[in-house]
Amino acid sequence: MVAIAHTVAFVGVEARLVEVQASLSAGLPGFAIVGLPDKAVSEARERVRAAFQAMSVALPARKITVNLSPADLPKEGSHFDLPIALAVLAALDILPPDQIDRVVSLGELSLDGRLVAVNGALPAALAASEDGRALICPAACGAEAAWIDAVPVFASATLRDAVHHLTGTAPLTRARPGEVQMPPRHTDMRDIKGQERAKRALEIAAAGRHHLLLSGPPGAGKSMLAARLPGLLPPLAAAEALESSMIQSLAGLLDDGGISRQAPFREPHHTASMAAMVGGGRGARPGEVSMAHNGVLFLDELPEFSKSVLETLRQPIETGEVVVARANAHMRYPCRFLLVAAANPCRCGYLTDANRACAKAPTCGADYLGRLSGPLLDRFDLRIEVPAVSIADLELPATGDDSATIAARVAAARALQADRYRGLAGVQVNADASGALLEQVAAPDAAGRALIARAADRLGLTARGYHRILRTARTIADLDHSPRVERAHLAEAIGYRLPFLQGG
User: Fold this and answer.
1) Torsion of CA 223, 229, 230, 235, to 10 degrees
2) What separation in angstroms does the CA of 422 have from each of 41, 338, 414, 425, 428?
3) Is the peptide bond before 483 cis (omega within 30 degrees of 0)?
4) Sequence-ordered alpha helix ranges (H) in 279-428
5) Do residues 97 and 88 make contact, with C-beta atoms less than 8 angstroms apart?
6) pLDDT tens digits, one per residue of 370-402
7) 340 close to 264: Cβ distance less than 8 angstroms
8) 329 burial class (0-12, 13-18, 19+ CB within 10 angstroms)?
């Protein structure tokens, strides 16, 4: 007899259904798992044996074979423990085969039969929903998986509880989704003295998801500015929150099953490897660019990052997704993020201060920022200088609007963009517009066309740089509630292309 249970294998953020086939046959006693299992899956047989002993279930002196189908799909992770145990129990006639055929299960078994939390419960619930099956998972994963309300989710604390549920002895109650989390904000734009131009650039970046580069001496407030950007972004829509949570679920970052409506904020250290940034390593896991999906990726000390790491960002910035190709894996992850980067003007940081600059000025600045390629710099819509703040300025009263006021303006501009691009696949904000669509929504008036023509000639703009100015001008017009892009909007957008960082 062959008993079949169902579970999932993860390919990127996608959970693919896997049949777990168990059979008992004559031959030398043994327990074999086949179907491209990794080390964690192969070790499941020992955990299953111990969990059965804890339930007083003895394995017969027969050959037990477990096949994970499709056999050519790599199987990784300890979440295969529970479906393997259920399939073997069905093969032993302890569980009714028709009952385990109706569910998708995942969970790691401890030696005493408890079910331990695993990553990926949320995408697994989505796969179960699409296949019309219920989901059984560890109790610690129930609140996370229950966010997919189209599928019945049953959270079991032990293997014994799962068996009792499937036999009808003690049915489990449906799990309830975790809380929607909106962490309190401890930072506010009013904390920053001066830097009005930088604050304006942050508002524009948040309103249209425009990439921003901040350059200035140490202590000017670049990191403080970037840390306050999430407070300006509107809460994630339900679909966006679920999309981001899928990635966080695979990485094991969901706390107590709660889904956050706050945009992610990731700030990897400049020593991050290529695999850590764009994804890869064992199992081709998602990288920082995907963890920042629908949120902010902040790269402090940008020139200190490895050049090869920085160059890998060029394609994800343009396409909104990253493909991690390896010899045994080909994963596609979404990575639609707002990139904010900070850089000192030179290695010592005081190039603009004649009293403190090193003897190598100004070539030290050209050498330092020369680590950033022109094509990469060309992808920043806003590139501004953040000057040092004097001690006298710090003693002055706070100026400018607080984060809540700015966030309200950003939300109003985002609402205009949502109406403008409704029904257009892959276009949500002005930064996504391109081609004929961009020319239609951001067409400047006659004075604006003359202005941008002169700027293009003087600054040597590339076609990408020209289009990014149009996108930025469209966002500035949205913040002004202007239906057309006027000359003043273009003039401000052009002003955010720093001459000493010209990439086009």
Assistant:
1) 180
2) 45, 21, 12, 8, 8
3) no
4) 288-291, 307-311, 314-319, 363-369, 374-377, 391-394, 403-420
5) no
6) 888 989 999 999 999 998 887 777 777 777 889
7) no
8) middle
Contact present, 20 and 83 (Cβ < 8 Å): yes
Q: Band the pLDDT of 504: cuts 50, 70, 90.
A: very low
Does residue 501 register a pLDDT over 60? no
Q: Which of 10-14, 151-155, 353-357, 486-490 has the lowest mean pLDDT?
A: 353-357
Per the confidence metrics, is the pTM higher than 0.90? no
Q: What is the dihedral of CA 45, 48, 54, 58, to 10 degrees?
A: -70
> Which H, E and C letters describe 258-310, residue by residue?
CEECCCCEECCCCCCCHHHHHCECCCCECCHHHHCCCCEEEECCHHHCCHHHH
> Are the C-beta atoms of residues 293 and 334 closer than 8 Å to each other?
yes
* 3-state SS record for 149-196: CCCCEEEECEHHHHHHHHHCCCCCCECCCCCEECCCCCCCHHHCCCCH
Using pLDDT thresholds of 50, 70 and 90, give the confidence band for residue 502: very low
**Separation of alpha carbons 151 and 175, rounded Å:** 10
Question: Whole-angstrom Cα distance, residue 476 to residue 493?
Answer: 8
Average pLDDT, the chain: 90
DSSP three-state, residue 116: strand
| Of 260, 104, 102, residue with least CA distance to 168 | 102
Taking the alpha carbons of 470, 472, 473, 475 in that order, is the dihedral positive or negative? Answer: positive
Question: How many whole angstroms separate alpha carbon 485 and alpha carbon 474?
Answer: 6
Q: Are 63 and 25 in contact (CB under 8 A)?
A: yes
CB-based contact 289:279 (threshold 8 Å): yes
Check if the beta carbon of residue 427 is closer than 8 Å to that of residue 421. Answer: yes
Per-residue pLDDT at 499: 61
